Amino acid sequence: MQNNIDSPDGQNNNDYESWLDRPKYTNVKTLEDRTETRIPQGTWVKCENCLSQLSIEQLEKNSYVCLKCDEHLTISTDKWISLLSDKNSFKELFSQIKTSDPLEFKTAGNSYKDKISLLQKKLQVDEAVKVGRATLNDIPILLSVMEFSFIGGSMGSVVGERIFLAMKMAADKKIPFISVARSGGARMHEGILSLMQMAKTSAGTSMLSKAGSPFISIITQPTMGGVTASFASLGDIIIAEPRTQIGFAGPRVIQEAVKQKLPKNFQSAESLLENGFLDMIVSRNNLKQTLSQIINILKN
Amino acid sequence: MEVPILLDFEKKKLGSLHAKLKILYAKREKREKDYQTIKKLETKLQSKAAVIYKKLSCWQRTQVARHSSRPYTSDYIQHIFKDFIEIHGDRLYKDDRSILAGLAVFNGRSVVVVGHQKGRNTQENIEFNFGMPNPEGYRKALRLFKLADKFSMPIITFIDTPGAYPGIGAEKRGQASAIATNLQQMFSIKVPIIAIVIGEGGSGGALALSVADHIHMLENSVYSVISPESCASILWRDASYKKEAAEALKNDAKTAFRFGIVDSIIEEVPGGAHRDSMLTAKHVGEAIEKSLKTLSRKSVATLLAERIEKFAKVGEFL
Asked: Does the pLDDT of residue A39 top 60, yes or no?
């Protein structure tokens, strides 16, 4: 279920007439490489898309959206949290739930266990999701943000459990649940347990529905596989950032299966909106305001 | 009588017996002596197969689960149910033939049956799209689940798919959304749901029919987050490491049972379900009957709460 995303330098891009026509997702590096694309420390940052030099200060003010080309740059989980929640309102929950290695999963020379501890040290992030309580323009919410740099934001037991418990808490308190998704899909290293997290998080959405807690799903670059095919597609309202790649099967898998060129803007947020699977595409600058507007209307 | 194709790991020990049986089966006018020989050879084959099948690797089980003679959803429907009436279409776009669905009678009780359908030959496989559903298949299934809910009929599903179809149209028409909707909605269906993994439990495409109160798995069926081939091509960067990937993924029934995902493992005859479809179907029927008895006694509230609880408790962490 986890999908590799075509690398930017791959030959697959030759099918497009010019580089301008290429869908934005071709800029995404492979899942493994993605760890390097977080905003670095320093005064200047290069836009991932148009390569303009942008000052951190400017970007900070503009929610890390490129001032030249509107590219929504990849930001860390903590940046997302501060973007959507009121200052110092976020209290992390369920962080005591830690990753184990239930299958003792090994590939040639690499163990899942080692990979986890290596990433935890390197990224200072303990898993592919962080959940917690917060307020959004003074509205109490439960917030969940995925972290793509951690094994492609993939969903294993810990991600499923944290999201499920946060949904359950939102349902119990009858408050909104807001999720920011970015994920390659279900995590292979935990086998069938990962697959079952799709059902588990979907069970959580069913509890939210029954409790009357609004569930707003925000889909960001990129969201694929088992995460798209579970809770991320089950929001009462589904919002995506511009040009996000959203899909089930990866483009390479599809291309191999159907043996034909993929259409322009295939699996882009814009085409999903056109086909009726998204409610809206919202620029990161307007996101918090849009969310509070929706919640206020729904809860009124 | 037909002789099923031998899998690579069976050839060495069963090859010569198979060849002899093939000749005898094909003989037009069999004499009493021939029948005796057949019987003798079959018994011998079974005991030899039993030795091989006692200890199969995860990759070998994957091969058995994909065997072209393995009983499919349609076979179970034929053997276990009465008065099956096929229902077509999702009432939105299309009839997806990779999912076979309908009304039937099981041991005197009205039920809804839904399952992935594979084909035995090229023509059938084109017709059934190799058991890989498009969004319409999942929507047809959900329509039937709601029908079952409305008329208080238990639901029985058969799981046997390589996965949801990775196509351009499938994506455009909301493959992910269709699967997700089933996962969510199945938690609100107020009748017992029993799922049986009969062959390949391929990822989200399989899960979308298996949010059930009881899940049973045939001994040599597999259930996993990703196929060994795809896993190998991502993590080993080479699909030919499928054997290693299957072992790493531990896609067998025992693992699913150990993690509390599967409620029971249904035994197969030595040599795999395809060597005795009737007997396998009988065992599957018994498992369904047992589950139905237990589940029918529960109130709707208990049933729904326990269904959520069943999936809520799946996960391993520190």
From this structure: no
Structure token digits, residue B35? 């029948």
Across the interface, whether the CB atoms of A277 and B259 are under 8 A apart is answered no
Q: Which residue range(s) make up the domain with B285?
A: 62-313
SS3 B275: helix
Residues B50 and B126 placed together within one structural domain of the fold: no
A100 contacts in chain B (CB < 8 Å): 316-318
Asked whether the whole model's pTM tops 0.90, one would answer yes
pLDDT at A13: 37
Can you tell me the distance from the alpha carbon of B54 to that of B81, in angstroms, rounded to the nearest whole number? 31
Q: What is the mean pLDDT of chain A?
A: 89
Confidence of residue A42 (pLDDT cuts 50, 70, 90): low
Which one of A4, A195, A277, A278 would you mutate to disrupt binding with B, by most B Cβ within 10 Å of its Cβ?
A195
Q: Which of residues 209-248 of B touch A (CB under 8 A)?
A: 210-211, 223-226, 230-231, 234-236, 241, 244, 248
Domain for residue B318, yes or no? no
Give the nearest partner residue to B183 out of A194, A199, A253, using CB atoms. Answer: A199
Structural domains of chain A, ranges and CATH numbers in brackets: 75-299 (3.90.226.10)
* Closest-CA distance of chain B to residue A32, Å: 10
| C-alpha to C-alpha distance for A78 and A90, rounded to whole angstroms | 10
> Quick check: is B3 in a domain?
no
Q: Where a domain ends, among B55, B71, B92? A: B55
Is ipTM strictly over 0.85? yes
A30 touches chain B (CB under 8 A): no
Per-residue confidence at A43, pLDDT binned at 50, 70, 90?
A: confident
- What pLDDT score was predicted for residue B3? 81
**B187 is a domain residue:** yes
| Enclosing H/E stretch for A239 | strand A237-240
Identify the pLDDT of residue B27: 86
Do B126 and B20 share a structural domain? no
Can you state the percent helix, strand and coil of chain A, rounding each to 5? 40, 20, 40
List A residues 219-248 in contact with B (Cβ-Cβ < 8 A): 225-226, 228-234, 246-248
Residue B82 sits in the same domain as residue B187: yes
Residue B292 in domain? yes
**Sign for the pseudo-dihedral over CA of A284, A286, A287, A288:** positive
Q: How many domains is chain B partitioned into structurally? A: 2
Q: Are residues B265 and B304 in the same domain?
A: yes
Dihedral pair phi/psi, residue B90, rounded to 5°: -100, 0
Report the gap between the CA of A141 and the closest CA in chain B (Å): 22
- What does the alpha-carbon distance between residue B272 and residue B279 come to, in Å, rounded to a whole number? 11
Average pLDDT over residues B269-281: 95
